[in-house]
Amino acid sequence: MSIKITVTVNGVKHVDRVEPRMLLVNYLRETLGLTGTHVGCDTSSCGACTIHLNDKAAKSCSMLAVQADKCRITTIEGLAKDGELHPLQEGFNQCHGLQCGFCTPGMIMTAADLLRNNRKPSEQEIRAALDGNFCRCTGYHNIVKSVQYAVEKMKAAKPKPKKEVAV
Amino acid sequence: MSTTNLIGQSVKRVEDKRFTTGRGRFADDIVLPHQTYASFVRSPYAHARILQVDTSAAKEMPGVIAIYTGADLANVNGVPCGWQVNFKNGDAMKEPKHALLAAGKARHAGDPVAIVIAETREQAVDAAEAVVVEYEELPCVIDAAKAVQPGAPLVHEDVPNNICFDWALGNPIEEVNEAMSRASHVTTLEFVNQRLVPNAIEPRSYNSSYDPITDKYILYTSTQNPHVIRLLMCAFVLGLPEHKVRVVGPDVGGGFGSKIFHYTEEALLTWCTKQLGRPVKWTAERSESFLLDAHGRDHITKAEMGFDAEGKILALRVKTYANMGAYLSTFGSCIPTYLHGTLLQGLYTTPKINVDVTAVFTHSTPVDAYRGAGRPEATYLLERLMDLAAHEMNMDPADLRFKNFIPPFDGVNQPGYQTQVALQYDSGNYEGVLKKGLGMLGYEEIRKKQKEAANNGKLIGVGFSTYIEACGIAPSAVVGSLGARAGLFEVGQVRVQPTGKVSVYTGSHSHGQGHETTFAQVVADKLGISMDDVEIMHGDTETVAFGMGTYGSRSLAVGGTAIVKSIDKIIEKGKKIAAHKLEANPDDINFESGKFTVKGTDKSIGFAEIALTAYVPHVYPKDLEPGLDFSSFYDPANFTYPFGCHIAVVEVDKETGEVKLDRFIAVDDVGNMVNPMIVEGQIHGGVAQGIGQALFEGAVYNENGQLTNASYMDYCMPRADDFPFFETGTQVTPCPHNPLGVKGAGEAGAIGSTPAVVNAVMDALWSGGHNVKDIRMPLTAERVWRAMQS
Amino acid sequence: MIPVAFDYQKVKSVDEAIAALAGGEGKILAGGHSLIPALKLRLNRPAKLIDIGGISALKGIREEDGEIVIGAGATHAEIAANKLLKSKLPFFAQAASLIGDMQVRNFGTIGGSLAHADPAADWPAPVLASDAAIELQGPTGKRRLKATEFFTGFFSTALRDGEIITAIRVPIPNEGTKTSYQKFSQPASRFAVVGCAVIRFPDGKINIAFTGVGEHAFRDAGAENIISGQAISDENIKNAQAAALQNITVLSDPFASEEYRRHLARVYLKKALQALA
Hints:
The complex is a heterotrimer. Chain A is 32% helix and 15% strand. The mean pLDDT of chain B is 97. The chains are: A alpha+beta, B alpha+beta, C alpha+beta.
C-alpha cells in the first residue's frame, strides 16, 4: 500500500506517495535527497537524525513519513536563513564543536530547539538537552561551548518576532 | 589572516561549514545509477554448524536479484591479517581463513551466512528474513582464559587450545624473577581490561560498482585508509588488478580504529558487483555494528611490580590473555604485543621487565585496534599498579612517581631512552607534566578537602595516571622486522598550480582530525601564502599516490612530514627559477614570507610568479624541468612518544555507589602543536572515551555467546551530562626526529584517562576505610556499592 | 531499521479508532516512540497501524469536575510544562522531564507509554501515587479503571482487545499537598532502574508508588501504612524503608541485581520522602 503525503520541507512543498513503513528519515534522505540528516542507530538513541517537525526537535528515525503528512519540517539544510548561518552553525565552527561532523546536524537541530524555548540555558541545562544526541569525537566539551557561544550571539542580536504556528 | 606563523595558531577549521550545513558527503549519502542494495543473513548462534541454507523462497521474493552463500565463495580467499606474530618457539601464528561468508560453521553471533541483493533496501531485508538456515548449535567459549583450558570448545579445528600464538618480550624471565625476589614489597593486580565496542556514530557503509566496458571498479567505503583497503582486497582477497580498482573514503563519520580494517563486506560487495554488473550498497545497522565492527581491548591480566624499601621499582612481570575473537582482524595480532608489551616501561626506570602474552581465539566478534590500541591496556596496567602500590606502601602516589620517573632528556643533547621492551623513547620531561598537573589540581587543597569529607561521611577520591604512548606509526624497517606485512610510511604531494594556488594530496585520511585545516596551515605557513590558496585532498586512490592512511596518531608526524619534504623540494626548485630570473646564484636566494630574494639586496620575486614561470618556462634555467609539483614519501626514523599526566577527582555516593566525576585534568605533551585548538579537541574526545571505559562501557556476553548489550538501550554511551568541562594543560617537548617536531594527539586522551578515573574511585573508597584492591570496569554504581559492602 | 510492511489508517476520532481496531489485526500508533523502535527491529510485526495522532479529543490537559484530565495524546513535554500540573501535582512535571530525551519528550505520549507498560517506564509511578484513573474506550463504550487495576504484569495491562486509553484522570488534591518523584536511571536507556513517586496530602496520608522495581509498577501499601500520618523523620523513614517491597518479586538485570535494586528502591524511597519535607 502507498499513501499520499504532503509535507513542507525547508519551505518547499512536496507531494509524494510513500509506503507506510517508510521512516521519515529515509523519506528525507532518499526521496528528497536531503542527506544532511543522518542515521546512527536503530533505537531512537543517538539523535543524528534530529530535525524539526512543526518547530519541535524530533528524531526522524522514530517517525513514519506518513505521520509527517501536512507537517512543516526543517532539516539542517534549511536552518540557515537567506544565506546567513544560524548562530549555532557559527558557534560550532568558532568553538570547534565538531570533528567528524556526522552527529553535528542532529546536535545543532536539538540545540536550536533548546534555544527557542530557553534563551539563557545554564551549562547543566545545555548538557541535559543534549542527552538524546551522541558524539564520539568531542567529549561534548566544545559542543557545550558552541551552544554557549550561540546563546551570547543571540543575546546580542535583536529578538525577531516569533512566528505563530498553526499545527 | 597573516600568512606567516600560521603554524601554532588555533585556526578555525575550514571543513566545518559543509558539516554544519548538512553538505557533508558520507558513504551512505552516495546513490549510484542502477543501485542495488544488500542485506545479510547472520548466524544467531555464537558457534554452530551450518547444515543447510535454503534460499529458494527468498529468491522468489519481489525485487530479489541474487543471493549468495558461503558455498558460492568457496574459491575466494578470506580477508588477511596484516601482522605476523610468531610463537615463542618461532612458529608462525595460526591464521585460520576469515571467509567473506561463513561456510560450514558460524563462529560468532552475527557471522554472515548469506548475502541478499535486491532492487531496494526494503526488499533486501524482507528477502533476507525469508532465507531458511538450518543450524546445529555447538558449545562456545567467550572468555580467553577459559578458551585455552583443555576441553574448551574449539573455534577452529586446526588451532589447538584456541591459541593463536604465545609471545614474550623484555628481559629473560629468570632475571625478572631474581629482581622480584629482592623486592621488599610486591604489588599484585589481577584484572580485566574489558572489551569495548568502538561505536563511531557513522555506521560502516560500502557501495561497490563495476564497469564491464572499462573493467574498472569503484568502492566507496567508510574507511580510515583507502589504499590499504585496495591493496588488501586486490592482492590478498579477490586477486583484482590494483590499477583497475579505485577506492574512495569520502567523509567518514569517526573511526577510532574500527574503520582501519579490511572488512569482509568490502570485498564481498566488490565480488558481487562483478557478478551482477550493477552497484551494490550496504550500510550497517547499529545492531550489526555492535556484532561486526572489530571490538577493542579484552585482556585478562596478572601484573606484579616489585619495589625496594624506598619505593624504587625493581621489576615488572606481566601475564596477559588477549582475546582475538573468532578471526584475526587486520591488525589484531599486533595490538596486545607490539603496541602493548612494548609500552610497559611506562615513564619509569624499571630495570627488569617481562611480559608474556597468549593470544586466543573465542566465539566472539574479532578484536583489533580501538583508540589507543594496546597502549591504553599497558597504561591501565602500570598506572593502576602505581596508585595501588602507593596505597599499600603508605606512600603518596605522586611522590612514588617522582621517585621512579626517567629524568628529562631532549633527544638532541641527551640521547633517547632505551627501554627494556624494545623501544627507544625520543624525548621527554615526565616530571614536568605531573608537576603541572598537581599545580592545576591544587593538590594539597584537594587532600585536605578529602580528609574533611571523609570525616563527614563523604567519599572524595583523587586518581593519577602518567602515561606514555608510541605513535607516529611507524619506521617500516623496524615494524617489518617485528612482523608487519606493510610499510608504514606516508605520501604527500604538493602540486603548485600555474597561478600559485596549491593542491595537496595526502595519504593521510581525515575523519574528524581536521587535516584540511592543519595541513593547510603547514603548507601556507611554509610557502608564505594564504590558507585560502591551499586545498587538501585525501581519501581517493585515484588522485592520491599510494599512502597508508590514518591511525596510531600518525597523520601529522608522518603524513605532515611527507608534505613538508615536498614543500622543501618546491622551494629548492623555486630558488633555481628565481635565481635564473634574477640573474643570481641559486645559493644566494632566500625564501621567506612567500618571496624569493637575492641575499643582501631588495631584488625579489613572489611565489606566484615563480609558479607561473614554472609552467610558462620562457625565461627558464636550462636543464630544469618545467612544472612545480613534488611528491615525497616519508618513512619515520622512530616512533614518536607523547606523554602526559591525567588526574581525576570523583565523588562516590556512599549509599548507592554512584560515581560523580567532579574534575578531570589533562596535561599532555604531544610535542609541537600546529593547531592547539584541534589538539585540545582531540584530547577531549579521547578523554571522554577513556572515561567511558572506566565508568560506562563494556561488551557483555552471556554464556551462550550472545552480546547482550548490542544496542544503545543497553550499551552505555557517554553523554553530554556525564562530564564536567575538562581542564587541559600542555607542555611542549618537541619531537627531535621530524621537521615539525610533532608527536601526535589522537589517542593520548584515551590512553591516559581510564586509570586516572579508576584510581580516583579506589582512592575515594580507601579514604572511607574500604580496603578494596580492584573493581572491574566499567565501575557501575552496583559494582562500587558491592565493593563497599565487602 | 526497516519494519515489515503494514497497512496504515489515520483516524480522526476515537470512535473511528475503535471501529478500525475491531478488525483485530490493527495496532495503535500514538507518538510512536515505543512502537517504532520495536517495529524497526522487527520485534513487533503488525499488519496495520491505526494512527491516533490526529485525534484532537485526545490532546490537551484540562481541569474537569475536580480532576485534572490529561489526554492520552498529551506529550511528555506538554506535561512537563503544564502549569496546572506543576502547581497541583508537580511530580507529573518532574517525571515528565526525566523521560528519555528532549526529542522523545516532544512527541512521545503518556497514553502510548502507559499502554506499552514497560516495567521501567516513569509514568506509572506518579499515576499510581496520585490515585489517578485511566479512562478507556472500546467497542462496548467507556470505562474507568483505577490505576492500581490497570498495570497487571510485565508489559501487560488491563486494556482489552479493541480498547484504547483516552485520558488519565487525576483527582486534584487539596491545597498543601506535596509530591516528589525520584529516579535512578539505567545509564544507557535512561529508563528507571528505580523510580519512586510519593505524595503527601494535607491530612498526612502518604501514597508511595514504585516503578522499575517489579514486573510492573505498584503501590507500596506496607511502606504507606507505616509513614502515613507520621512526621517525616529519620526514624519513620527508616521504618518505611524496612516495610517497603514486601511480597514483591524484585527484578534483576545487568544494571541492577535483585539485591541492589531492592537496596536502591529503599534509598530512593528515602530521597522521595525527604524531598517532601
